[in-house]
Amino acid sequence: MSKLSEQREQEASTPEKKGPRWLWILIAIGVLLGAWAAYDYHSYSKVSTLDNFAKCLSSKGFHMYGAWWCPHCTEQKESFGFAFQYVAYTECGIEGQTHSMNEQCKSAGIQHFPTWQFPDGHREEGVLPLPTLAEKSGCKLP
Fold first, then answer.
1. Which of 87, 95, 125, 138 has the largest count of CB atoms under 10 Å?
2. CATH for 49-137?
3. Tens of pLDDT along 19-40?
């Protein structure tokens, strides 16, 4: 046998050295988790650009009345994204009862949803675009 043949035979009979596969799996999981965390942080920060606008509306006395079952209320809430948590809001719907209204909203004279009440007491019904709210309130949109 030639030396080359002996070397090949010896290499074939020698078990392969394998690196720790679990290490590569852990690295891959770490990279994926890091990418997910970065995406989550970035997407949250983009949606939260309206926080100051929503806080301004509330501080100036703007108030929204809505109901959980109202599709137009959902549309209005979605226009604020996560910043809706800062809007002064009264839930008029009774949980589990479609097209119902609680006593608080009945006594306030709310008839349709959404209803925006302005600081001077007048009201407007329906979805109001954010630029309209900015114009009426003097609050600055980002």
1. 87
2. 3.40.30.10
3. 678 888 889 898 988 888 878 7
